[in-house]
Amino acid sequence: MAEEAAQSAGFGPEDRLFRAHLTLSRVRPAEDVSGLLETFADAGVGWRCRSVVVYRSHLGRGGARYEPLETFPLTR
């Protein structure tokens, strides 16, 4: 449905499969940090998440710009 709407708006068909995702963090340059995470697994480091924010990414030459779309509180 989204593909058809995009094409009717004049965009070409997308060659890539859509994959919904949730980005929790980024490591640049990309590397395997699983060993590092295991090293600190018992360090007692953590955080409390009080809300989840859904962003739209606007990618461009000057870097990504993120637009908050909706905030979902996780507290009662």
Layout: helices, strands, pairs:
Elements lengths: L1 H7 L25 H6 L11 E8 L6 E9 L3
Antiparallel strand pairs: 1-2
Structure explained in plain terms:
The chain is α+β, with helices and mostly antiparallel strands and 76 residues long. The protein has a domain at 49-76. It has helices at residues 2-8, 34-39, and strands at 51-58, 65-73. The protein has a two-stranded antiparallel sheet with strand order 1-2. The longest helix is centred in the N-terminal third of the chain and has 7 residues, at 2-8. The mean pLDDT is 81.
What is the percent of helical residues? 10-25%
Average pLDDT reading: 81
Q: Proportion of β residues?
A: 15-25%
What's the alpha carbon Rg, rounded to whole Å? 18 Å
Based on Cα principal axes, name the global outline.
Answer: extended
User: SSE order in H/E notation?
Assistant: HHEE
Structural class: alpha+beta
The largest sheet, given as strand count, sense and whether it forms a barrel, is: 2 strands, antiparallel
CA distance, first residue to last residue: 36 Å
Major β-sheet strand ordering: 1-2
Number of helices: 2
Total beta strand runs: 2
